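Input/output pair, single chain:
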Amino acid sequence: MIHDMKKFLAFLSIALLTPCLIKPTYAQVTAHALPPQSSDMKLGLELLSDTNGKNIDPYMKDLISDLKKHWLPVANEAANQPLLKQEETVIDLTIASDGHLSAMRLENSSHNTALDKAAWNAAKGTTYLPPPIGMKDANLKLRVHFVVN
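Output:
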């Protein structure tokens, strides 16, 4: 009788503790599999042209703002599947002296087609202003980093 009681208590303790042990593990897995929020999406510009000492910070800030405006809504839709690692698409741009986009090249793929397309379409859909006057080159060459954490 005592042996049966010990077996029953062992079974009962396992039955009661198992859900407590499994639930936190499940909660951790689902927390990492959530779609990214806008705060997890970053855009950076790398200047590849010689500015000849000209301060183009205001131009760059406006450009980042315009690119984000075109990229964030599309990238949020594209990234609605869970991401388990940081993904980055890098695109090289050349903006001509009259403000039109004269060249675009995919420098680095995120290997996520939807995110790469979102970045590409944002770069194509942005209206560019002519680069600031006084730079060494008439064309402005940039590298744009579209990052989703």
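The longest helix spans residues 2-32. Residues 15-37 have pLDDT under 50 and may be disordered.
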